[in-house]
Amino acid sequence: MAKVHFEQVSKRFGSGPQAVQALEPISLAIEEGAFTCLLGPSGCGKSTLLNILAGFEHPTSGQVLMDGLRVRGPDSRRGVVFQQGALFTWMNVLDNVAFGPLATGKSAAEAARIAAQYIEMVGLSGFAKRFPYELSGGMQQRVGIARALANSPEILLMDEPFAALDAQTRELLQEEIKRIWHETHKTILWITHSIDEALFLATEVVVMSARPGRIKAKFQPRFAQSNDPAVVASAEFVRMKAEIFGLLREEALTAQRQETER
Ligand SMILES: Nc1ncnc2c1ncn2[C@@H]1O[C@H](COP(=O)(O)OP(=O)(O)OP(=O)(O)O)[C@@H](O)[C@H]1O
C-alpha cells in the first residue's frame, strides 16, 4: 500500500467572484521511501498540495490518507522544512534541533543526544553552540533539515528548501540531501522550480499544470540512486530535461496569461 494517497483532492480559497480554484481534484499515490518532486508554474498549487498533506490546510473536497488514515491536522509523523530555515533566532543550533524531542517529552540529555546526532548528519558538528545569525543561509537550511529529522518524522515535506541559496551551495546541499535520503530512507515530498534539481533527486517527478493545478505528467528518473553529480550530463538526463522544459513552458505561458487577465 502507498504511504500517502491524495484522493480527488481539490482546494478553493474564498467564495463568490473572488474565489480562487487552486487545485482541481488531484489523485496521487506516494510510495514509502519515494522522493517525489513537484514541478509547476508559479501559483499552480504546489504549496497548497504540500500544506494539505502537512495538515495546515483542509481540502475543499477529497481527502489525503497516510498509512490508510485520513490526515486531519499537523502531526509529528510529517516534518516540514520551509524555504527560510524558520529557526528560533534566540536559540543556538543545538537548542533549535533539540526543541522537538524536548517538546515530545524526551529528557534534556536524550534530546541533546538526538540533536547532536542530526547536527552531525547535516555536517554541522562544530557549530552546535552558534546562533542562527552566525550561520550562512546554507547552514541555516541544514539546521532546518536537522530540526525536522530530530522529530523522527516518517515523511519530510520541503517547500522550495534551497530556493534562497546561491547556485554552488544549492548543488552541494542537493548532494547532501540525497546522502541523507539514502541513509534514512525517509519518504520525501519536495517542491522546486528547478528541473535539474528534480531530476537529480527524485524517484518521481510530478509536473503540474497552471492553476487550477492538475497533474500534467509524471516521470520516473533513474538518477536518485546515483551519487555521481555528473549524471546531469548524461543523454537520458538531458532528454528528460528537454521534455519537462517543454511541458513547463506551455504551463508557464498559461499562468502568465492568467496573471495579465486578472
Ligand atoms: N490562503 C490563501 N488565500 C487565498 N488564495 C490563496 C491562499 N493560498 C494560496 N492561494 C492562491 O492559490 C493559488 C495556488 O497557490 P500556491 O502557493 O499553492 O502555488 P505554488 O504553485 O506553490 O506557487 P509558487 O510556485 O509561486 O510558490 C495561488 O493563486 C494563490 O494566490
UniProtKB/TrEMBL annotation:
Residue span(s) of domain ABC transporter: 4-235
Coiled coil ranges: none
Key words of the record: ATP-binding, Cell membrane, Membrane, Nucleotide-binding, Transport
Gene3D superfamilies: P-loop containing nucleotide triphosphate hydrolases
Transmembrane listed as a keyword: no
Molecular function as annotated in GO: ATP binding
Similarity-based family: Belongs to the ABC transporter superfamily.
Name by which UniProt lists this protein: ABC transporter ATP-binding protein
Lineage per the UniProt record: Bacteria, Pseudomonadati, Pseudomonadota, Betaproteobacteria, Burkholderiales
